């Protein structure tokens, strides 16, 4: 029987699989030209209020073209399904007869409404963005494509599935860290550990009282809307995470591991207090692109983060006089820093030779801490 397709709906024979506690899964097929006809690719961006929307990675043109060239061959095989999140507007009608269900799956007819003018499409691609784009460009537009779908109007649930499905793949780290605060369900330990630092990174970038306001680049960052964004979000997340999980970190005491609670307000106060003084101590290096200031570079942020653990181990950021005290502590290090020019003689590197690699981060951190420990005895 030929695929059913009228002006209002695409109807496909499908298997419905009910899994306990989750939306039912539907297994069916589409033609290549139909995938993007019914499904949107939801790329990560932010609305006017700064709220995260979408969840997909950017296009990779070369990879897409390679898929197109393969699909155009007669020997093409397409075994991996596109995974879709369907809106609740779809309908499934079970088949009749003794063979329609076997205890694991039910056969029937899935009806997917075609998008009308000015209306959103009834599906979103959770996995298979690049394959879907390639399918839309292949010469073989009737090529049959396997599809796995679930009904979910909630973008939060779609994001959760996107992260889980792509958990073992090389997703861009910035995309993962930006999505994590938006996922409410339990996460794998590796991802859960990064959720709180990513949420804090969000606040630091969005709060006008934060020294990092508008300076952090996330996967959704639009260069025209955020022209001042110069710091990669993964660097800020790593700086916060390292201080949070290390017993020697200044943010570690803000976690109550036994109750699984975190004092976010206290952490934000500590971060804003310290980094505001960093901004005041190095005004010529603050807010510039990493190519012009290594303070805004991954190595600079992480090294100053490790120095933060030492400084705030001595100064309580909750004290009214904390900014003045932190300023005195950073003043002993400032003359030895070469963020925008000159040479780090002790490291045998020019200022712009510092890279965000483990060896440079470690060497720069050790040097700043060593200078600080040697000089702080004179702080009054």
TrEMBL record:
It comes from Micromonospora mangrovi. It comes from the Bacteria. Transmembrane segments: none annotated. This is DGQHR domain-containing protein DpdB. Pfam families: DndB. Coiled coil: none annotated. InterPro entries: DGQHR-contain_dom, DNA_S_mod_DndB.
């Amino acid at each position: 029987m030929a695929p059913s397709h009228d002006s209002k709906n695409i109807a496909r024979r499908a298997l419905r699989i009910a899994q306990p506690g989750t939306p039912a899964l539907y297994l069916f097929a589409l033609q290549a030209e139909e995938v993007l006809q019914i499904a949107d690719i939801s790329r990560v961006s932010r609305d006017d209020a700064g709220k995260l929307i979408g969840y997909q990675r950017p296009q990779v043109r070369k990879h897409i073209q390679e898929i197109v060239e393969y699909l155009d061959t007669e020997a093409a095989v397409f075994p991996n399904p596109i995974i879709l999140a369907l809106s609740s507007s779809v309908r499934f009608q079970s088949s009749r007869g003794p063979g329609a269900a076997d205890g694991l799956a039910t056969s029937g007819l899935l009806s997917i409404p075609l998008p009308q003018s000015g209306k959103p499409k009834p599906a979103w691609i959770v996995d298979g963005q690049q394959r879907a784009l390639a399918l839309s460009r292949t010469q073989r537009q009737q090529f049959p494509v396997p599809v796995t779908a679930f009904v979910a109007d909630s973008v939060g649930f779609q994001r959760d599935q996107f992260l889980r499905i792509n958990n073992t793949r090389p997703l861009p780290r910035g995309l993962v860290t930006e999505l994590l605060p938006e996922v409410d369900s339990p996460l794998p330990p590796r991802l859960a550990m990064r959720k709180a630092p990513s949420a804090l990174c969000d606040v630091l970038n969005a709060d006008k009282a934060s020294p990092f306001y508008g300076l952090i680049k996330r996967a959704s960052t639009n260069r025209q809307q955020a022209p001042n964004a110069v710091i990669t979000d993964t660097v800020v997340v790593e700086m916060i995470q390292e201080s949070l999980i290390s017993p020697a970190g200044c943010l570690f005491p803000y976690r109550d591991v036994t109750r699984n609670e975190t004092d976010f307000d206290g952490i934000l106060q500590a971060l804003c207090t310290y980094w505001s003084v960093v901004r005041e101590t190095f005004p010529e290096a603050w807010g510039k692109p990493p190519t012009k200031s290594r303070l805004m570079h991954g190595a600079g942020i992480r090294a100053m983060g490790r120095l933060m653990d030492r400084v705030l181990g001595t100064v309580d950021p909750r004290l009214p006089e904390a900014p003045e005290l932190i300023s005195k502590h950073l003043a002993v290090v400032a003359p030895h820093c070469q963020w925008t020019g000159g040479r780090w003689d002790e490291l045998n590197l020019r200022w712009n030779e510092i890279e965000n690699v483990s060896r440079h981060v470690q060497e720069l951190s050790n040097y700043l801490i060593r200078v600080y420990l040697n000089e702080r005895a004179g702080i009054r």
